[in-house]
Amino acid sequence: MTCEIVLVRHAESVPPSPGKPDDPDRPLTTAGIAAAELLAPELAAMNPTAVVSSPYRRAVATVEPAARLAGLEVTTSWELREWDSGLEPTPDYAVHYARSWADPDFARTGAESLRQLTARAIAAVERLAEQHAGGVVLLGSHGTFVSRLLAGIIPGIDWPFSRDMPMPAIHRLRWPPGS
């Protein structure tokens, strides 16, 4: 049995602070909050049977208005978190991300490679699809998570795709792919 997975990349969030690790508690900006509210009717109209999110505040806040409209609770899963790049926020982050996309097996000490993120993302979605077979799951997450999941199943997903993904963004999938 198939499951529809609706990937929701979080809305605009407060930028990370240089010199500090990425903060899971970073909130949405005022514009991000408004975008999440505007997106909620569209997402709720998909008749979700579950709303699952990265535990990061910005991801939960993006899907919570849709969950409320659909009469559902947002549950969180650590597996849906953003990529653990091992990088502190820096103005030149794009150079480092491009390097990782060029070599998905590259990982900084103690961090996750993009290939590992792809495997984590696919495994997480497979589990959700099994748990919610026949349903529609709104999945709140992050740009790199969404991009690497898509890269694992769709040819041609690359660094420019990830870099240029809007906030928020929606991608609809049938799971298993090709079903």
TrEMBL record:
SUPFAM superfamilies: Phosphoglycerate mutase-like (SSF53254). Pfam families: His_Phos_1 (PF00300). InterPro entries: His_Pase_superF_clade-1 (IPR013078), His_PPase_superfam (IPR029033), PGM_Phosphatase (IPR050275). One of its GO terms (molecular function) is phosphatase activity. It comes from the Bacteria. Coiled coil: none annotated. This is Histidine phosphatase family protein. It comes from Amycolatopsis thailandensis. The lineage of its organism: Bacteria, Bacillati, Actinomycetota, Actinomycetes, Pseudonocardiales.
